[in-house]
Backbone:
């Protein structure tokens, strides 16, 4: 279960589904937007409000995110919503008869935890965290296991009251096919890029968020030769604007909308400039790709940024218009780039999806028959 169609939460569930199918092809899987299923009208409204807030007034989200005062105040509202949704979940579960439920976002996790409490259900529930700091909205006593990105996140959950034996530091799930080796020179030639130039990848997640136009303008000031790949996701307005702007750009540039070959694009790149979404971060770490982080969303992305900087796996830029200075410095300093690569290799978890799939399958095999005929 996840919420939001174009999101890291959905990508995480798809990655786990694919990994389960690799290990157990006959397993039946229902991958569902829980919010859309239980509250289809509210889902559109809330998603629209969320996108509006993070684009125009991100400080509001920063205040709401994991604020103990806010968490306490909305507890009763949250409980009422869960109670309202429990019968809907019961209908779904009675039809599908799951052996395990895994949630990549706190909202459906809370719904299923309340369902278990309401109906005294033994249904195994797995919470899959996709950011490097756990917020309090995840904590429910009916969750059987928490899959965390790192040992530090597991410790933070334990400090919030989660039993130590429930926290498993298996990593953030991403497409298991992402680890498939590529031949860099072949991909560069296929994309008609030069094999002897540094390649910079610029992304803003599936939504194409962030100051990508400002980044591209700043990079024009770099005298050193390089080539760039820009991925706009579903942001058609950004794509069209950049398409016009890049006609006069002096650097070799590939411009894409939403793509399904991030594995190849990261594999041929020497540097990525991106927002630090959990799944994007996990993918870049798996590729040992040096990261420059720009304008993280307050809350989860700011926390991800702090984690990556502390681990020496990323550099953060505060003044976007001056990003050219930092990029040029990195392109001219192979030792610094190598340090970033090595640091990424120390904290990455490239087998996360398969490890999570194994845990879920073990739970499925060990559980009792929950829905007798």
Residues:
């Amino acid at each position: 279960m996840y919420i939001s169609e174009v999101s890291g939460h959905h990508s995480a569930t798809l990655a786990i589904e694919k990994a389960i199918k690799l290990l157990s092809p006959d397993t039946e899987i229902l991958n569902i937007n829980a919010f859309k299923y239980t509250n289809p009208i509210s889902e559109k409204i809330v998603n629209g409000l969320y996108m509006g807030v993070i684009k125009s007034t991100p400080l509001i989200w920063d205040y709401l995110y994991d604020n103990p005062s806010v968490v306490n105040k909305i507890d009763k509202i949250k409980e009422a919503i869960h109670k309202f949704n429990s019968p809907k979940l019961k209908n779904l579960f009675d039809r599908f008869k799951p052996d395990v439920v895994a949630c990549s976002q706190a909202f459906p996790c809370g719904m299923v935890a309340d369902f278990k409490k309401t109906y005294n259900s033994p249904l195994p529930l797995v919470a899959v965290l996709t950011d490097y700091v756990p917020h309090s909205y995840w904590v429910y006593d009916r969750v059987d296991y928490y899959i965390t990105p790192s040992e530090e996140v597991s410790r933070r959950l334990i400090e919030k009251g989660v039993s130590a034996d429930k926290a498993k530091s298996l990593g953030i799930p991403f497409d298991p096919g992402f680890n498939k080796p590529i031949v860099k020179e072949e991909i560069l030639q296929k994309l008609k890029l030069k094999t002897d130039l540094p390649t910079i990848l610029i992304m803003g997640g599936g939504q194409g968020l962030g100051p990508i136009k400002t980044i591209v303008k700043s990079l024009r000031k770099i005298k050193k030769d390089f080539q760039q790949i820009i991925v706009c996701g579903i942001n058609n307005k950004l794509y069209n604007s950049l398409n016009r702007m890049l006609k006069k750009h002096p650097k070799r540039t590939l411009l894409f909308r939403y793509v399904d070959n991030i594995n190849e694009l990261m594999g041929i790149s020497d540097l990525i400039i991106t927002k630090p979404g959990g799944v994007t971060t996990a993918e870049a770490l798996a590729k040992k790709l040096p990261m420059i982080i720009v304008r993280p969303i307050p809350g989860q992305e700011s926390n991800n940024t702090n984690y990556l900087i502390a681990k020496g796996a990323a550099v953060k830029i505060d003044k976007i218009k001056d990003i050219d200075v930092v990029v040029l410095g990195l392109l001219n300093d192979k030792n610094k780039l190598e340090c970033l690569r090595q640091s990424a290799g120390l904290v990455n978890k490239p087998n996360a999806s398969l490890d999570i799939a194994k845990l879920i399958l073990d739970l499925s095999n060990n559980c009792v028959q929950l829905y007798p005929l």
Notes: The chain has 17 helices and ten strands. The domain at 177-347 is CATH 3.40.50.2000 (Rossmann fold). The mean pLDDT is 88. Residues 75-96 form the longest helix (22 residues).
